[in-house]
Amino acid sequence: MEKLTNFFTEVMKKYLPDPFVFAIGLTLLTFVLAILIEDISFVDLTSAWGNGFWDLLAFTTQMAVILAMGYVLATAPVTDRLLNKIASMVHTPKMAIIVATLVGGIGSYLNWGFGLVIGGIIAKKLALKVKGVHYPLIIAAAYSGFTFYGLGISASIPILISTPGHFLEDAMGLITLSETIFSLPMIITTIVLLITLPLFNAMLHPKDPKNVVEIDPAIYADKPRVKLNISEDNTLANKLNNSRILAYAIGALGLLYIVIYFTNGNSLNLNILNFIILFVGIILLGTPARYTEHLADGIKTISGIILQFPFYAGIMAIMAASGLVDTIAKVFVDLSNEQTLPFWGLISSFFINFFAPSAGGHWAVQGPFMIDAAKELGTSLAETSMSVMLGNAWNDLVQPFWILPALALSRLKLKDIMGFLVMIMFYVGIIYIIATLAWSYLL
Question: Which residues cross the membrane (predicted)?
Fold first, then answer.
């Protein structure tokens, strides 16, 4: 296993470019494939690309907000104390890898933006504390927990199709969360992955100390925050900036709305998720000034999303306008029957996610075709939808776009951690394939 990991690590170091370069290359590749396979003119394709470049601007904002505000939650004093307590109980490199995976995974299950950040933070803390930890691996292990978001309460596709008014409601109706992420097959899958993935990641740790790359404390140690000193500036403005009364009042108002929202029978969606983490964050930070201070730090983690998401929106526009996504999906659907459609949906989703890494946008281009196929073959709509979600979450392990926050927090390059993520991708793929086939044939 170590030799195989080293092989992939060396390959990635030699040939894998930075994420933005990857997005540019993927754009050009999509152009070429659409022209060759779909026989569409270059001018028409360029128009479709440019017209769709900003189509996901609202969704980009939602993603940026959920990540930046997730950072605030992950760096709140109460969270920081909890992470320090967890780190103080870890004393060996392999246990550090296990803990980083669990924290990143549980955090991502609750909220993907929160998990992306808290995983990176605990990985840094453990790398600084535990001697002999291979730093690229612990960052990769913490990031690997991101795959749990596809099984968790912020999974975009299950949340979307359970929300009244979603764009496929006429074709498939509403699919409740009890049929998708809270179904027995997905609960079992979550438990199995939560137990085995940390152990698998620990097995990837280099046995030879000479191959271990440790964190450099001088470079990576957290910088102390500037403390706000109210006593030196007793002006009304400063009192308001640091007022706990204001923070708790607006926080309580936000919590009241959340209660009213769910009491009225509304479903979980991205907007209410962002609302929750915003007002919980305000309460945890305690003052308006502290919240804005932490949020300013969090903004640094979203630069890659703001830059690259329009490029992926353009890629998705090419895929949709040319019919390329239908062609890819149809190849797999034509191989399917009632039992195997979810399996081929999982596989096709994995490949499509390279071109459309947003689960919501991904579903917009692949969902209609998959639902039509499921209705024609008599396959469960819930299972078919979850197969696309799992394929998305599986591919995200090696999709450079979502790794950006981990790279920003760790100050590593994509090529430093991708070799480990390829190995993890193979393992998680086995779990998801078995889960999908078991749901079709056994459950």
Answer: 20-41, 53-76, 96-123, 135-161, 181-200, 245-262, 268-289, 301-321, 341-365, 420-442
Alpha-carbon distance of 423 to 23, in angstroms, equals 22
DSSP state of 268: P
- Mean pLDDT, residues 99-109 taken together: 96
Residue ranges of alpha helices (H) inside 225-269 are 236-241, 244-263
Mean pLDDT, range 256-272, rounded to an integer: 86
Cα(221)–Cα(354) distance, rounded to whole angstroms? 34
pLDDT at 410: 86
What is 17-82 written as a DSSP string?
--HHHHHHHHHHHHHHHHHHHH---HHHHHHHHHHHTTTTHHHHHHHHHHHHHHHHHHHSHHHHHH
pLDDT beyond 50 at 373: yes
Is 232's pLDDT higher than 60?
Answer: no
Cβ-proximal residues to 231 (8 Å cutoff; 6+ apart), any chain? none
Q: Under a CB-based contact definition with an 8 Å cutoff, are residues 310 and 54 in contact?
A: yes
R_g of the chain, CA atoms, integer Å: 22
User: What digits encode the pLDDT tens for the residues 267-324?
Assistant: 776 788 789 989 999 999 999 999 999 898 888 778 878 888 889 889 888 988 898 8
User: Model-level pTM greater than 0.70?
Assistant: yes
Phi/psi for 249 (5° steps) reads -65, -50
State residue 6's pLDDT score: 86
How many CA within 13 A on the CB side of residue 424? Answer: 37
What's the maximum distance between 2 C-alpha atoms anywhere in the chain? 73
Q: How far apart are CA 200 and CA 195, in angstroms?
A: 9
What lies within 8 Å, CB to CB, of 8 at 6+ separation is: 418, 419, 420, 422, 423
Q: Please say whether the beta carbons of 351 and 324 come within 8 A.
A: no
Residue 229 — pLDDT band, cuts 50, 70, 90?
A: very low
> CB burial class (10 A; 0-12, 13-18, 19+) of residue 296?
exposed
HSE of 330 in the Cβ direction (CA atoms, 13 Å)?
5
Nearest residue to 376 (alpha-carbon basis) of 330, 329, 337? 337
Q: Closest Cα to residue 152, out of 396, 348, 389?
A: 389
- Side chain identity at 337, as an amino acid letter? N
Pick from 130-144, 193-207, 216-230: least confident: 216-230
Contact yes or no for 12/431 (Cβ under 8 A): no
Supply the DSSP symbol for 222: P
| Pairwise CA distance, residues 254 & 192, whole Å | 36
Could you tell me the two tokens for 258? 């959340």
Structure confidence at residue 224 (pLDDT): 53
